[in-house]
Design goal:
CCA tRNA nucleotidyltransferase activity, 11% strand, tRNA binding, binds magnesium ion, transferase, 399 residues, Hydrophobic Seed Protein, single chain, two-stranded antiparallel sheet, binds adenosine-5'-triphosphate, alpha+beta, Beta Polymerase, domain 2, 53% helix, seven-stranded mixed beta sheet
Amino acid sequence: LPEEFKSALPIIHTLEAAGYEAYFVGGAVRDTLLNKPIHDVDIATSAYPEEVKQLFDRTVDTGIEHGTVMILDHGQGYETTTFRTESTYTDFRRPDQVTFVRSLSDDLKRRDFTINALALRGDGLVVDLFNGVSDLEHQTLRAVGHASDRFQEDALRMMRAVRFAAQLDFTIEPDTKQAIVDHAPLLEKIAIERVNVELTKMLQGRNAQYGLLELLATRLNAYMPGLKNVEIDLWGYAELLAKDQPDTPTVAWTLLAFELGLTPKDTETFLRLWKHGNELIQQAQKAITLLNVLRQSEATNWQLYMTGDAFPNAMRVLQLSQLPNDVLELKNRYMQLAIHHRDELQISGKILQSAINLQPGPMFGKILGELEKLVVAGQVANNQSDLIARAKAIAEKEK
Ligand code: ATP
Ligand code: MG
């Protein structure tokens, strides 16, 4: 057992000693069997939430209505969820009702894919009701039970299918794939934020290319904002992903906007439809502004400068985009800019005021703005005497 499981064993043992069943479940079990590092350890138990809380001193109700209680132990938190079934999905997205049950098999049955439906007992026994171990060995992604029913219950699972396939480099088994084709339109029922989470993980997967090609083959893209009827661009993106994958959400989405040929303004509109945060949107807009220049011609110093803190992301996207631009040379040019920020100008409003005897006002900003441009262009050195001399000249001219 990996360390993360070992340190959680006391929790399993406490539950078992009280007469309940308790197992490790979910992604951590899958990843352990794949010899991959694990993120969070999830425990499933026959104990009801109130029974769990009675057994442990320190617990937090993180999702008590779904049966989840976080147990705090040695500075670690372990999500412990009561075995449950989910019944009557009428809106294709979440269960109308969660029912706590005492049987592990009922709990495993409601899980999405066979490789995610494994349970690991404290003594190392693996409970494998749906041949998940065999699917792990054959790198196969297969829905638990009848795929068509499972996607109708919860359409997000279709996105999870392409996401896991990309992350794990697994093949989606034919019946599961056909069920995605059949139910792709249901994706529109899912909150865009949740689709976004899966797509973002998919684009960073080690076989992101396969994930994106399966997404296209099943037509899931037709039910996503801004991705309908842009198959050619998305094929182009998939081709890029064969060689290397984005390392962050910002890079993944900026590259997508770039491959779609969007303007900075359209990039914002597109990313807002996907409910991205302002930080990612601003980064993408600044990067796209520079990238659209680089697609056509050389960038000026000013254009490099204006990219600001989005410059590293822009360069990463440029690398992935396979454009012929010399990324190293651009990075050098950026590093060698005289300033990277207006506040690095060796002159302040105060000095300006006393040196050229000018009252604060719009003229101030105008002069500072011009000095900034001249310094970035390398036409004026960034030292106080040169800047004051030039400021005087500008003020004179403006009079
Ligand atoms: P990751 O490493 O990305 O966290 P994971 O398998 O742990 O992968 P989670 O989203 O954390 O994925 O979910 C934990 C487990 O809960 C899954 O392994 C699966 O058994 C179950 N699960 C999660 N979402 C669904 C869903 N939409 N339908 C059915 N089962 C689900
Ligand atoms: Mg998880």
